[in-house]
Amino acid sequence: MRHCMSPLDFSVDELDQLMGLAADIEENPDKYSHACDGKRLATCFYEPSTRTRLSFESAMLRLGGQTLGFASADSSSASKGESVSDTLRIISGYADICAIRHPKEGAPLVASLHSGIPVINAGDGGHAHPTQTLADLYTIKSLKGRLDHFTIGLCGDLKFGRTVHSLISALVRYEGVHFVLISPEELKLPSYIREDVLEKNGATYEETESLEDAMPKLDVLYMTRVQRERFFNEDDYVRLKDRYILDNDKMKLGREDMIVMHPLPRVNEISVEVDDDPRAQYFTQAKKAVFIRMALILTLLGIQVDKNIPQPTNNPSSEKGGEKC
Amino acid sequence: MLNISGIHEGYVLDHIKAGTSMKIYHLLKLDELKDATVAIIMNAKSKKMGHKDIIKIECPLGSIDLDTIGYIDHNITVDVIKNDSIIAKEKLALPKVLKNVIKCKNPRCITSIEQGLDQVFILTDAKKEIYRCRYCEEAYTEKETI
Ligand SMILES: [Zn+2]
Asked: Which sequence ranges are marked TM in the entry (chain B) (predicted)?
């Protein structure tokens, strides 16, 4: 059995297969519409995240499966003090696969240790959100045609933004990715990511405070939201949240074939006027996230619809090397 | 040089940083060893260290887990004694996994609320001696124990 705790659980080759499967699903949805007939996905959300939960549910429904679950801790036994491990032992009897979101970091791993079914980490506090990263990779791959030899600008909160940290860790495995880190001094990328991830893997990067200066260099611009809950001081938040606002004037500085991404929801860091620009791809990104989640569900359940479309094994320990999962 | 003639079978832990021997005594759970005789020498003079602590343990070989002290201080030297003589000098390595030795300090970590969960840390960078919580992956750099 295989779980999904981190995007790095998959080797680069396996990610290629996963994205290839997602692309086939996107092109031929009918082929997969009964792949999960009779299977159930449990969405165990200990904190609300409507967008992520609906994305998972949509993925399972499009595969012909069914879903059950809870949308916040108030409506679950967690509010009565039941442990994550107990909940998962019980859910294992109700469903075939589980997506768990939890405010505490490492909760999905604990869940997976006690689960009889594959567990997907659907976000655990500031720690990880692997399916977001898989969606980001798949979006870049399908819109730019490759995951190597391009320049990506990451803009906004690079200090606390787990989406950014996770994306960087995933992208350094590809050759020739150049990172332009755009943030105010207070929200710079932490030194441990610069040293242990970027430099250790020989990735090239530059840091700047100016989005305008960075724009002309970029193949991909990844915008992020500055999150209020990360700040102790409301004044700091108010001052920093409006530091970067992408509008049509700034878009004029960008290349014609650049794409703009955002994990959504946005607050005001991308002005709505940009939505009509063909380079704005954040809604496409949200749509593509469903296909990569479908590919992930199929993979973890060990369901192969088309023998000509390779997919990662759901039993990595039996493979040589025994990929960590 | 202190003699070790008092020990028939057991261990001599030498070059312990002065003042830390009691911590190591508890960490090795020497108080729980029923048939062990333990001698603690504190603040002994040392050419190399100025002052040091020494722990002598008379006990059947294999009854203490030396890995945990590798985490606390891997400069500690261990003489293994059998039939009144030193049969081996062990060098302590940093243990790859620490189970219930240190406690995760990240308040957002699942270990802060989940009952009955072991505290597990994994050595992720032997050079920098960095352990990370198995669950939240926060690095733990202080040399403190539960
Ligand atoms: Zn932790």
From this structure: none
Nearest to B13 by CA among B82, B60, B74, B100: B74
The domain at B97-140 falls in which architecture?
A: Roll (2.30)
pTM: 0.86
3 state DSSP class of A234: helix
- Indicate whether A278 and A292 sit together in one domain: no
The DSSP output letter for A63 is T
Task: Please give the structure tokens belonging to residue B65.
Answer: 């887990």
Residue A309 within any structural domain of the chain: no
My answer on whether A121 and A177 are in the same domain is no
A232 in B contact zone (CB under 8 Å): no
Asked, for residue A205, whether it belongs to a domain, the answer is yes
Residue numbers of the domain that contains A101: 7-128+288-301
Find tokens 């496409």 and name the residue.
A284
CATH fold group of domain B10-90: Alpha-Beta Plaits (3.30.70)
Q: Which residue of B135, B138, B139 is in closest CB contact with A109?
A: B135
Distance from the alpha carbon of residue A107 to the mean position of ligand 1, in angstroms: 10
Alpha-carbon gap, residue A89 to A113, rounded angstroms: 10
Nearest chain B residue to A114 by CA distance is: B117
Q: Is residue A246 part of a domain?
A: yes
What are the average pLDDT values for consecutive 10-residue runs of chain A, which has 325 residues?
Answer: 95 97 98 98 94 97 97 69 88 97 95 96 93 98 97 95 93 97 93 92 96 97 86 80 92 98 93 97 97 98 97 77 41
How large is the ipTM? 0.87
